[in-house]
Amino acid sequence: MILFISLLTLILCFLNYYFLYPIHQKLFFIYTFMSILIFIIACVYIILKNQKIKKNKILTQEIEKYLSLSKSNSLEELKENLKLSFDLINKQLQDQKLQNQLTQKDFQYLIQGLNYLQTDNLYTLKPILQQYHHNKIPINDCFENIHAGIINNNVIENFLLQCILSNIGISSEITKDYKEKNFSLIISKEKVDDILNFTFTKICTEDIINFLNANFTQETYKKRNSHNVLIFKSTSFENNLILNITNQFCQNNQTVNNLSDFKKSLQLNFKLILIDYEVIKFDLTHISQILQEYKIKNSQNTILLFSKDRVKNCDFANIILNDINKNEWLALLKQYINQV
Fold it and tell me: Residue 176 pairs with which residues in a beta bridge?
């Protein structure tokens, strides 16, 4: 439009000067100059606009090619295609997240099943659990001095029952006449009146353990799980480094990354605890009290405190370390884990 107006003005000036009503020469040159200037500006504007359109078109084509979008005739259409594409990707991500959760559950069931077959499988498969963000290894209830009789004709169910019982420290055997031997309890589908009896229709580990916990409360039947080393350093890197070295010497070790998990882990029986002063110094009084109570309950266990600086009010620690290398750490493990 600007180009058309400037061109029209220039034509009128020439017509007016030569054919219509003559105007002053200086005024004619001023009109001419202004018209030419407007014409040049309009041309520059059109050139720049075309370049911008061309650049936008190239950019649009690159975006369409990179994101595999359908061809767009304008930026608005491209925006709409992008929105549809992002909505589709978001839905696919949600579906993938759900699929990952289902896969994670499948791995956990697989690991639980394999753990019934061999005790060491739990430690072998721990990296898989960590990879799928399931870092808490379930701790089994352990019993001793319990012998169970199983009355059932289903071979597969009997195998699973014996695996579960073996995993929690209970010996068992398949029997038809429970009076022949001195069984601590009988597991069956039909009720047995004259002996402690657990009946089931479908095998559920939780139900079995709840029954055992309710009926075998005496200390003679309870066996505390004994773990080797609990590691609580200030960084995940240090935790993993020390854990890898420790695993070369003994199994059944654990790391924690925060105070909440550390407090929960103290419910277990660890022969050796390595804790960094940096992670407890802001709540030292409370943690000291918890560790003092832990030492009273587990007087045979050892607590090592790591601190580069001199510290006070840490009576819970058996040893305070300023620095330690791999060989020194292995020497401490040999001393306190009692494993050659």
Answer: none
- Going across the sheet that includes 226-232, the strands are 254-255, 226-232, 269-276, 302-306, 319-321
Distance CA 22, CA 19 (A): 7
The secondary structure of 101-123 as a DSSP string is HHHHHHHHHHHHHHHHH-TTHHH
The H-or-E segment that residue 199 falls in is: strand 197-199
Type of residue found at 207: D
Last residue in a domain, options 139, 161, 176: 139
Q: Residue 203: what residue type?
A: I
Helix (H, G, I), strand (E, B) or coil at 34: helix
Please give the C-alpha separations between residue 41 and each of 36, 200, 331, in angstroms, as whole numbers.
Answer: 9, 92, 86
Written as six digits, the tokens of 261 are 């998990």
State the CATH number of the domain containing residue 187.
3.40.50.2300
- Same-domain pairing of 62 and 135: no
Mean pLDDT by 10 residues, the chain (340 residues): 61 57 62 70 79 75 66 68 75 80 71 56 53 43 84 85 83 88 92 91 85 82 74 88 88 87 84 89 85 84 85 81 85 76
Among 121, 139, 157, identify where a domain stops.
139
- Residue 105 belongs to domain spanning: 73-139
Provide the number of structural domains found in the chain: 4
Q: CA-CA-CA-CA torsion for 276, 278, 284, 288, nearest 10 degrees?
A: 0
Contact 233, 239 (CB under 8 A): yes
Residue 238 to residue 245: CA distance in whole angstroms: 11
Q: What angle do CA 335, 336, 340 make, to 5 degrees?
A: 55
Q: Are 287 and 243 in contact (CB under 8 A)?
A: no
For residue 220, is it within any domain? Answer: no
Q: β-strand 226-232 against 254-255: which pairing, if any? A: parallel
Same domain, 245 and 311: yes
pTM over 0.90: no
